[in-house]
């Protein structure tokens, strides 16, 4: 990228006009299904500036936190080695705990189920490249949407060469 484009992007970003979304991705540990994660999120919801939100804890606040908020970025969640859902990030709060300062990522209670996409395990969180963002399926309301057809339909589709 030329220095002119880089500078132009920085100016637009500083003025809040650059809206390319910045997303995060984080593993969900100890959860088996999207339904289990949905129920956990419902239990952990708290009030956050007049709206319901769900905290997600991490050690460090992202350097691009302001860009994430400005661009209405999301946190994508990996359950059992698959990206399965996302939630809009509402804010970041630094909190003193018994174990030191932690970053609380405040996310919307509205869970959006995504097309289930394989993802290798990693530690902590990462920025998610736009090219790796899976498509949204629907708002998740506590009922799994299966990514695979029933076995008999799957066999027919394979015989027809469609799978």
Describe this structure in words.
This protein is of the alpha+beta class and 163 residues long. It has one domain (19-159). It contains four helices and nine strands, in the order αβαββαββββββα. It has helices spanning 3-14, 34-44, 65-70, 151-159, and strands at residues 23-27, 46-48, 51-58, 74-79, 82-97, 100-108, 112-118, 125-128, 136-139. Strands 1, 2, 3, 4, 5, 6, 7, 8 and 9 form a nine-stranded mixed beta sheet that branches. A hairpin with a 2-residue loop joins β5 and β6. The longest helix has 12 residues, at 3-14. The protein is globular.
Mean pLDDT: 88
Q: Please provide the ordered H/E string of secondary-structure elements.
A: HEHEEHEEEEEEH
What is the radius of gyration?
18 Å
Largest sheet: 9 strands, mixed
* Low-confidence spans: none
Structural class, from secondary structure content? Answer: alpha+beta
**Oligomerization state of this entry?**
single chain
Topology:
Layout (H helix, E strand, L loop, with lengths): L2 H12 L8 E5 L6 H11 L1 E3 L2 E8 L6 H6 L3 E6 L2 E16 L2 E9 L3 E7 L6 E4 L7 E4 L11 H9 L4
Parallel strand pairs: 1-4
Antiparallel strand pairs: 1-8, 2-3, 3-6, 4-5, 5-6, 5-7, 7-9
Short description:
The protein is an alpha+beta fold and 163 residues long.
Name a few traits of the molecule:
alpha+beta, 9-stranded mixed β-sheet, 4 helices, globular, 38% strand, 23% helix, 163 residues
